[in-house]
């Protein structure tokens, strides 16, 4: 037995030993963990740090908002439901700890503010609660449930228990209730992630196998490539598990991505082997396929890994995880392909064709094949093709300047999804659902009485209600009683008594969650509500709120008193910062990938101009697709961001295979036209096959109800088709133009010699 066969069998034995561990790790990684858009950034992200501090001060903001058609102020069923939510054992852990921080009922709140102690008439109560806890019909209300961190980990089970309690105590079925809030957002992302796996992984896998079989026209070769792609998937998933992570909704497309990349690389190697089998002068086709393919395969894997690893510069956690693990998966995949495909064909070679074509027959066929005619057409029109490509890229570049990013709820789910229907109903019948928290901090340096501090809160709240985007507000003053001034009482005495009375209400304000005392400081909470679904410009909205808060303080005081500070936080400011981070990541990761790959290409091609020319066909796909998004005013989401750098890395794959054969033929003394035709015939078919398999294999996920996954799939398919156009049309046009002379490393005189 030769040394090569011994190495092959040792590798197979090692893989068989590791297979149970790979299978277990992959299965564990597929157990999706809790997903939430808020978890896309960690505590080092400034806006997330502010939001976490707010949650520590005023309680958890992970809430569920509950309502239904008959959820009204006069419905006693609400009291039964609230009692069940507070006392039922299913909402407590084994030690009796409650999974909720608080349960707020609009009906209870209305009765509390209507009590004699508050001295409010019915109109005043409605003025304080309409648009937040009471709808426009002045009857419909809601229940808000705040989860603890322990409850957040069991949100799927707890939301199911809430729906069961609704049916038991209010006769409201799952389809009849309307749920919204961060808890529901995260849960729906979990469900969409699981749905994508359950519905699309198997069809995607079968699609890849079928097209692989059709393209290779050999069941054994198709099963070999397909089996290695599954092994590469398993190893990558096991790596995720053993490093302490698991699949999230945004990592769900990574396993099929690894699979199609493995299939793409495998098809190139198998095609090299098929070409060698047809040549009677090659005694060892498997070794020849390895010798021909190892360099472009390694270079392709390296550049693809660079494209994926460029996502590590992202400030968003799921994008970093995707980039890191996918880059590792690509390198593992390449090692498997280069070792196992030649090894299998060495041990179990394919039979050579019974009738080999003669050189004369081959020449006759070559003169009439597709690649010959394509070479002739591009050779005569290379200036036109290159000019059109350049103009298209310039137009697309302008379109990119118009791109906007969004991670709002309506960009995560399809328009006919239940979650968006629930949001729409709740905003129509109860009020706006997205809170912006303004925190007013008064330290002892401010030297203001409690009444004066509350008056400052009142001025800020009145000013916020004048903004275009803020629909309603709630503050500490919402829970304050009305104190009519007795006749003949002096201002000084009334203000003193009012301050004492309001100070006596501090426990109620604290219990309501709108006042916090920390180290002698008073923290007042003012919540401004804006729509979750309307086309609100978050940037303008936050600027307006900041301006109104500042003007309210300056109108009351010429200069803001010492010891008074304000801060904006909440879901929307955090989402706004995530959107800005998305745009930064899009350009940072792409620029990083472009620069590194460009450096690699200049080294590989042996010249600065040659390397930059070879990059044109690689920049062409993302530039065209993202430029089109900009022109069509389609917002970029988190799924879209991941495609630019990934597509750049994949596009380089085919470019390197093509240029490897072009350069080899050119260095052998042939003309650029003959070298282009030679490269077409050796890897053109494989390039079409890989693009077809990668595109259609991922396109199955375009039917996912989770929009980032769906958009990632169709954008990747579009980018791969554009990459194929760039490699088969734009790149040959550049090589046949005067720029092609920069690829000639050896002077003609040396060839003649």
From TrEMBL:
PROSITE patterns: SSD. It is found in: Cell membrane. InterPro entries: MMPL_dom, Mycobact_MmpL, SSD. Residues 609-737 form the SSD domain. Keywords: Cell membrane, Membrane, Transmembrane, Transmembrane helix. This is MMPL family protein. It is a multi-pass membrane protein. GO terms for cellular component: plasma membrane.
